[in-house]
Amino acid sequence: MAKDTVTVTNNATGQSVELPLYHGTHGPSVFDIRPMSKQLGLFTYDPGFVSTASCQSGITYIDGDEGILLYRGYPVEQLAEQSSYLEVCYLLLYGDLPSAEQMGEFQDMIMNHSMVHEGLRRFYSGFHHDAHPMAIMVGVVGALSAFYHDSLDIHDPQHREISAHRLIAKMPTIAADSYKYSIGQPFMYPDNSLGYVENYLRMMFATPSKPFEISPTVVRALELIMILHADHEQNASASTVRLASSSGANPFASISAGIGSLWGPAHGGANEAVIRMLETIESVEDVPKLVARAKDRNDKFRLMGFGHRIYKKYDPRARILRQAAHEVLAEIGAEQVPLFEIATELERIALEDEYFIERSLYPNVDFYSGIILKAIGIPLNMYTVIFTMARTVGWISQWMEMLDDPEYRIGRPRQLYVGEARRDYVPIDKR
Ligand code: SDX
User: Which tens digit of pLDDT belongs to each residue from 90-122?
Assistant: First the structure.
């Protein structure tokens, strides 16, 4: 990193400190505040980490003002059009696109780890029959650390790699099992002769009692969604995985923490929340009422699928998914998903409204992904599970990068203490 400096002066004391300024490949430069706490005894204050770089990373770059998203330098639009989810996994994990031979070996490695230990499948019976599949995912993925004692040394690069492969390989099986359990159907075993996404759809929808076929359009639509959700730099769930694993916690427990964070409706749970929101709208005539609620400061309601901490223009992933939604619905018949007409009317009204324009609130990745998932028959409570499956490679790539970072240490933010000043204990008979 190139080094210049910025000067910070505490005007109350007249003390100043020179802070190193680092420049990356793209995006804002950062100044290193570490000398400041040592020399000026000051902390920075940044609730929600809006302006704080928690690490240096070479995996994903986002330019929110220009609506740019790069995975290891490659525009996500090109990967969405020409790549596959497993090839994107290789790219995120290893930093470059694989040769044909490397891709073949990687695909075999992943598919050969797709089965889970039979003991793990007994975990499901402990959940209530109508448990949300995300609750099952948090529990079962965390439980993987009880099965793989042979690969829990996070300082061993081979242990890290086998754990990464196991998590990517087993997530579809665990996800499909969580769905099968919730509908009381028998679990399906993976079929390693199928592609990664097709194998998942088969485990989700096939039954032992009849042959199974799936439309290539459905497979490609889900592959597209998986590619677009694979990573997104230091979002809430990726930061959760980094913070959890910074203590030395094993990768399965750390990914389980990330799943818990992604479940929130402000984050990965938004795709499910978008559909639930659209389902409350009877007809396009009711859309203005919903937009009015979203603008009302006295109403906690927010337009799900709109707004983003970084994108202050259209989320490039939403743009791709909007087009894909049109294509999928053209094939299956738009009348199958009347919500699409309501969604496009909601988008039109919001994008013309001063409130949304002033705050740079545009559709994000979750606004159209739910429409496509609904069109290809994915049940609503599985939407965030699909996001979890797709994002596992992003979390794991960030985890591996952190452990290789010479500056890596346990994450431990500080605070501005605003509680009581020191005071002495008063015995109860004197209070
Ligand atoms: C994802 O970080 C990532 O990269 C996440 C993600 C990924 O790939 O990992 O991209 C995936 O999580 C996408 C976001 C999915 N969430 C939603 O769609 C939920 C609805 N959106 C919001 O809750 C909100 O926009 C956030 C959480 C996405 C961003 O919140 P910020 O950056 O903290 O913005 P904010 O809450 O400070 O809002 C700024 C203003 C406020 O109004 P004022 O106080 O200035 O008057 O915009 C308003 C907010 O009230 N606002 C909204 C709104 N989002 C923000 N008003 C109505 N509807 C909304 N959706």
Answer: 999 999 999 999 999 999 999 999 999 999 999
pLDDT tens-digit readout, 9-33: 999 999 999 999 999 999 999 999 9
Surface-to-core class of residue 413, CB atoms within 10 Å of its CB (0-12 exposed, 13-18 middle, 19+ buried): exposed
- Say which of 308, 404, 424, 429 is annotated catalytic: 308
**CA–CA distance, 158 with 400 (Å, rounded to integer):** 11
The helix/strand/coil state of 415 is coil
Q: Residue 7, SS3?
A: strand
Catalytic status, residue 159: no
Pocket, ligand 1, Cβ cutoff 6 A: 48, 232, 235, 266-268, 270, 294, 302-309, 359, 361, 364-366
All residues at 6 or more sequence positions from 181 whose CB lies less than 8 Å from its CB, including other chains = 124, 125, 127, 129, 131, 136, 187
Name the active-site residue from 177, 231, 315, 366: 366
Tell me: the pLDDT tens digits for 178-216?
999 999 999 999 999 999 999 999 999 999 999 999 999
> Is 0.90 topped by the overall pTM?
yes
Return all residues near 342 (Cβ < 8 A) that are at least 6 apart: 278, 281, 283, 284, 287
Which residue minimizes the CA distance to atom 24 of ligand 1?
307
Alpha helices in 236-338 (DSSP H): 236-245, 251-262, 270-278, 287-295, 316-332
Gap between the Cα atoms of 321 and 343, Å rounded: 13
Q: Return d(Cα 74, Cα 80) in angstroms, integer.
A: 10
User: Is-catalytic flag, 229?
Assistant: no
Residue with the smallest CA separation from ligand 1 atom 4 is 235
